[in-house]
TrEMBL record:
This is F-box and WD repeat-containing protein. SUPFAM superfamilies: F-box domain, Quinoprotein alcohol dehydrogenase-like. It comes from the Bacteria. The keyword Ligase does not apply. Keywords: WD repeat.
């Protein structure tokens, strides 16, 4: 069938009213469940005489939209990235409404998200941010008393934890805060654990370890060793060693631990601590902006999609299931310092003082030159970022919170 665009300027709208059917209709407009591109295409081709048939289609979609059992399927189809972070039970109509509203605001270039500036100044810059149990934690390069600060999500300081280390590294679990202990060696081999509830601390030494940074994943701390890396239980301090290659872990579940080195993504078996699979990353022939020392990661377990950045301005998108590189693009004018998933997009930040919002679907080719949905200029280089719900937290000399569910007042 060949479609011919109509010349009518009439807008296509549904005239179906809930009282015209015996079925209780969801308050979600049925158009929300259609890909917006499809709706825009059809609206340009429908003649006035076809609205009768289109009205029947509207009725059918309203019936589908009112079926709560289909919400999960519809949510995954419309928001494939976002749905990967929620259980089936959590994917409700209310969550769908919020996600759709947030998506609309993100793509609206005239929408100004609400911005909150936290009342803190870190003279050397904020090195890291982390979220745990609804609290935001910040660690600074050279805060005068080397503290880790705890904040509520609206910028009120809740607590302060003393540390001995001037580095910006920290790890947050449910009950504890971890920092490296300074020594006379070029790298660290000890951790300090601070209990959140009463600030009581203990120190754990690992003579065979040697790490510059570390990663907290759930209730485990991952640190480097001479022959691989250690997994440290946050409660007991017991360690398990993963052998075979030096790597930086970035994801762990019950079955595997994923990590990267300069040339590959490596999967270890969580039970045996042995390497399961090595997926090479070939950056041969790339320009200087795509030379890698992978230290920034974002992983989507549902799709097997990994976003990687290193010590330059580029971004790699990799499909772990097909073991192939999807795209390799220079996206900032300075080193990429952070990558997070936000709603159904990803956000990157760099030392060029800019954070950018990207449609994941645009990062699909080794030869493409994608454009961001939105870009925001901050006054200082961005060192780190994290997100929770509709809130995006940016770490520069201070902390900025952007909320795309609310508009900045005039």
């Amino acid at each position: 069938m060949q479609l011919t665009r109509c010349n009518s300027n009439l807008k296509v709208v549904s005239t179906l009213k809930p009282e015209e059917t015996d079925i209780e209709v969801s308050r979600i407009n049925f158009f929300d469940f259609l890909p917006e591109e499809l709706f825009l295409l059809l609206a340009g081709y429908l003649e006035l005489r076809t609205l009768g048939d289109f009205r029947l289609v509207c009725r059918k979609f309203n019936v589908i939209g009112s079926d709560a059992s289909l919400i999960q399927a519809l949510f995954k189809a419309r928001f494939p990235i976002l749905s990967g972070f929620y259980t089936q039970k959590e994917m409700t109509k209310e969550l769908y409404r919020k996600a759709f509203s947030l998506e609309k605001n993100i793509h609206n270039s005239d929408f100004r998200p609400e911005k909150t500036v936290f009342q803190t100044i870190a003279f050397g810059g904020i090195r890291s941010l982390a979220l745990s149990e609804g609290v935001l934690y910040s660690k600074h390069f050279s805060f005068p008393d080397k503290d880790i600060l705890a904040w509520d999500l609206n910028g009120t300081q809740l607590n302060r934890f003393k540390t001995k280390c001037t580095s910006g590294w920290m790890g947050i679990t449910k009950n504890y805060i971890f920092t490296p202990l300074p020594n006379n060696r070029p790298c660290y081999n000890a951790l300090r654990r601070i209990r959140k509830s009463d600030k009581e601390s203990i120190e754990w030494e690992f003579p065979e370890a040697g790490f510059w940074g570390f990663k907290a994943i759930d209730e485990s701390i991952f640190i480097g060793s001479r022959l691989g890396f250690f997994e440290i239980d946050a409660e007991s301090g017991l360690k398990r060693e993963y052998l075979g290659d030096s790597a930086e872990p970035f994801f762990a579940d019950r079955n595997q631990v994923l990590g990267t080195n300069r040339s590959s993504i490596i999967s270890w078996d969580r039970e045996t601590q042995e390497i399961k699979e090595v997926s090479p990353i070939d950056t041969h022939g790339s320009d200087d902006n795509l030379n890698w020392d992978f230290s920034v990661h974002a992983y989507h377990d549902d799709t097997g999609r990994i976003f990687l950045a290193g010590d330059r301005s580029g971004l790699i998108s990799y499909d772990l299931r097909q073991r192939r590189m999807i795209s390799m693009t220079s996206i900032h004018k300075a080193r990429v310092s952070g990558i997070v998933f936000y709603n159904n997009e990803i956000i990157t930040a760099g030392l060029d003082s800019i954070f950018k919002i990207w449609d994941v679907r645009g990062l699909t080719s080794l030869n493409n030159d994608p454009n961001p949905i939105r870009s925001f200029k901050i006054g200082f280089p961005i060192n780190t970022l994290c997100s929770e719900g509709s809130s995006l937290f940016i770490g520069t000399r201070t902390i900025y919170k952007y909320d795309f569910s609310k508009e900045e007042p005039n």
